Amino acid sequence: SQKIEQNSEALNIQEGKTATLTCNYTNYSPAYLQWYRQDPGRGPVFLLLIRENEKEKRKERLKVTFDTTLKQSLFHITASQPADSATYLCALDISGGYNKLIFGAGTRLAVHP
Amino acid sequence: DAGVIQSPRHEVTEMGQEVTLRCKLISGHNSLFWYRQTMMRGLELLIYFNNNVPIDDSGMPEDRFSAKMPNASFSTLKIQPSEPRDSAVYFCASRQGGYTFGSGTRLTVV
């Protein structure tokens, strides 16, 4: 069956450290993968998009890698801050053009001072 | 999420009643998506439109659910009759590179 897996356990880290979140998928060949942040009571907010022919993408303190052989994406937040505490969702386009985006369950990140 | 406005923010209704959720896009986009989020199942895609035409409604759980997009800036999701298991947060989203989500409608069916 097709599925997207993210760490179900919450990730607790100390302020200033690098947070690394994992997204694994099976039986998909996505044209691109996206990462979102969701705060309680709010809708997901788009962070980064990485295409299948890109290995890595960066935006300020964020870095995303995409390994289509391993079917895995890693999401890194460097120099983490308490304000980074949220749930992070990965999402795949599985329709190759019609933008059918499906989401993982998300990983909750807590950054402690 | 200023580009996508959903109403109402909260809706509490009795089982069997009709519920209509609304989504307004501030600037016209050619793609619109309805998602449902619950603790058990996470974010599920219900239906999406391209150029006001429904492209894929395979995620709509039952015939009780219907969606329309009469123009490029407005869509409705209707549940008739509603059931307690429909309780969830319903999101509308449009696509501009990444997706822009509204703040959601929290629906509680009692």
Strand content of chain B: over 45%
Residue fraction in strands of chain A: over 45%
| N-to-C CA distance of chain B | 29 Å
Mean pLDDT of chain B: 92
Overall helicity of chain B: under 10%
The interface involving the most residues is between: A-B, 23 and 23 residues
Structural class of chain B: mainly beta
The structure class of chain A reads mainly beta
For this structure, the quaternary state is: heterodimer
* Principal-axes shape call of chain A: globular
Largest sheet of chain B: 7 strands, mixed
For the biggest sheet of chain A, the summary is: 6 strands, mixed
Low-confidence stretches of chain A: none
| Total of DSSP H or I helical runs spanning 4+ residues of chain B | 0
Query: Strand-and-helix sequence of chain B, N→C?
Result: EEEEEEEEEEE
**Overall mean pLDDT score of chain A?**
92
| Low-confidence blocks of residues of chain B | none
Helix % of chain A is under 10%
Total beta-strand segments of chain A: 11
> What's the SSE pattern of chain A?
EEEEEEEEEEE
* Whole-angstrom Rg of chain B: 13 Å
